[in-house]
């Protein structure tokens, strides 16, 4: 066991390390010209990291893999903070691979900058949601939350053409993009009423 150069073990260590880094970025990132205090604070609220694919070769139950490939998706509302996380994790990758005597290669396949919703449109949407809920319930809503979206959606693709804003419909248990996704009829109705109220305010 002490003589092994096992990329699967290195991968496992790196995935757990990535989870720690993304849960507590302030424990890993330093405050310097590359990463300001405000960036780290932003990261603690918005950073999400996902390992969604792992493939091994030759992929046999009793064989140490000759190669392991895995993907990482890192998202945050602050581009500078996200870059700091990528830089820090890349450094850790090479350190761990060197310690384990395995060869590591990092390939950056896709990069998309964060897109910020228009403040004016977002404010109108929030006001419209408030109006819709009041019409439905006859009472003043306690709070209309403003959320950060980890997913890009069409808004990201359209942001270079026009101002964008997004309206979310809550899903049971927070599960979306899944066969288990479920929304209440009342929430769909509230979203529709919010859009109508938004159009009224916009026009």
Automatic annotation (TrEMBL):
Transmembrane segments: none annotated. The keyword Manganese applies. It is an enzyme of class 3 (hydrolase). Keywords: Endoplasmic reticulum, Hydrolase, Manganese, Metal-binding, Purine metabolism, Signal. Its EC number is 3.5.3.9. GO terms for cellular component: endoplasmic reticulum. Pfam families: Peptidase_M20. GO terms for molecular function: allantoate deiminase activity; metal ion binding. It catalyses: allantoate + H2O + 2 H(+) = (S)-2-ureidoglycine + NH4(+) + CO2. The keyword Repressor does not apply. Its cofactor is Mn(2+). It is found in: Endoplasmic reticulum. One of its GO terms (biological process) is purine nucleobase metabolic process. Homodimer. Belongs to the peptidase M20A family. This is allantoate deiminase.
């Amino acid at each position: 066991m002490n003589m092994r150069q096992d990329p699967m073990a290195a991968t496992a260590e790196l995935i757990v390390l990535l989870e720690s880094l993304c849960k507590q970025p302030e424990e890993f990132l330093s405050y310097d010209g590359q990463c300001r205090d405000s960036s780290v604070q932003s990261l603690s609220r918005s950073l999400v990291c996902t390992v969604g694919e792992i493939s091994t070769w030759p992929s046999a139950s009793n064989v140490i893999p000759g190669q392991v490939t895995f993907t990482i998706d890192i998202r945050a509302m602050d581009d500078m903070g996200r870059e700091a996380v990528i830089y820090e994790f890349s450094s850790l990758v090479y350190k761990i691979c060197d310690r384990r005597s395995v060869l590591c290669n990092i390939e950056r396949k896709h990069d998309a900058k964060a897109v910020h919703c228009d403040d004016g449109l977002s404010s109108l949407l929030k006001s419209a949601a408030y109006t819709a809920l009041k019409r439905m319930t006859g009472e003043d809503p306690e709070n209309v939350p403003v959320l950060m979206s980890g997913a890009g959606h069409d808004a990201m693709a359209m942001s270079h053409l026009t101002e964008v804003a997004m309206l979310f419909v809550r899903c049971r248990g927070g599960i979306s993009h899944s066969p288990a996704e479920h929304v209440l009829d009342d929430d769909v109705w509230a979203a529709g009423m919010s859009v109508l109220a938004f159009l009224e305010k916009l026009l």
